[in-house]
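One example copied in:
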Amino acid sequence: MITTLKSFGTGQITLPKAWRDKFKTENFIAQETSQGLLIKPLVEDGFYYELEDGEVGISFPLGEDAKVVAANLKKANGKI
C-alpha cells in the first residue's frame, strides 16, 4: 500500500491504522536511504528483537533477575 503522510508542526507523522495493526509493535525505526525515508517496525520477542532486514538485538529490563537474563541470553544466542 502506498499512502500520503502529513507532517505536523512538531515533525510527527501518523502511520495509517492498517499499518499499525499489521505489526505487533508501537516502535518503528526511520532510516534515511538514497531513495528517501524508510520506516521499519521494531518487532520484539521478549528480550530478543529482530528488524525486518535481519538485524537483531537484546534488551534487558531493569530489575530483571540474573537467572532470567542468563536464560534469555542462551535462548537468543541461537537466533543471533
